[in-house]
Amino acid sequence: PDSLLAAGNTAEIAAGLVAAGSPCDLVELTARLDRLFTEAADKSVPVTDLKAFFARLKARGYKLGIASSDNEKSIRQTAIRFGFESDVDFVAGYDSGYGTKPQPGMVIGFCDAIGLAPARVAVVGDNNHDLHMARNAGAGLRIAVLTGTGSRESLGADAHYCFDDITALETLLPERVV
Fold first, then answer.
1. Residue 14 to residue 95: CA distance in whole angstroms
2. What is the pLDDT of residue 10?
3. How far is CA 163 from the centre of its chain?
4. Which residues pair with 123 in a beta bridge?
5. Which member of 42, 51, 80, 175 has the greatest number of CB atoms within 10 A?
6. Is the dihedral of CA 86, 122, 132, 82 positive or negative?
7. Which residues on neighbouring strands pair with residue 65, listed in sequence order?
8. Are strands 161-163 and 141-145 parallel, antiparallel or unpaired?
């Protein structure tokens, strides 16, 4: 949990590899890793039917966003692959101009895009960078999920809730009046 590979963005991982002796130039290595991570999106495995899951949340009136340490292209490619791209109101990768985790910029960008104050937003994440980003932005709810590299022990102190996966959100989140 919280290692550079688990929580860092591509530029941070590349910088760490260069500092550890990689012969590649930082810019070249970042680009190569971005390509690798974008291609890896085609191999990801969902924990549930994401198209149906996002559609149900959207039908309940929720605005949905994705803030990731991955590049924006790979996030969008994943959304298309699993069929939920039309249910997402906001996408931010480390390269989208909102800053990087654990800075608050991605949450603030989402809030600006949908017209809500951070205190009215729930952030769901699988590592402490996500939860710290939520806290730094003043998000009203921090929810940890155990489908990444974090454990209940490593995430519990910074989360209001800690679930095995995102499917538990449907029972937690109230119906919204649209």
1. 14
2. 83
3. 16
4. 142
5. 51
6. negative
7. 90
8. parallel
CA pseudo-torsion sign 91, 96, 97, 100: positive
Contact residues for 65 (Cβ-Cβ < 8 A; gap 6+): 88, 89, 90, 91, 92, 110, 113, 114
In this prediction the pTM is: 0.85
What is the Cα–Cα distance from 6 to 8, expressed in whole angstroms? 6
Sign, CA dihedral 80-41-107-167, equals positive
* Location of structure tokens 């292209």: 73
Q: Are 9 and 94 in contact (CB under 8 A)?
A: yes
pLDDT tens column, 10-22: 888 888 899 999 9
102: cis peptide before it, omega within 30°?
Answer: yes
DSSP state of 146: S
Q: How confident is the model at residue 65 (pLDDT cuts 50, 70, 90)?
A: very high
> Which stretch of DSSP H or E encloses residue 135?
helix 128-137
**Cα angle 108, 65, 174; round to 5:** 100
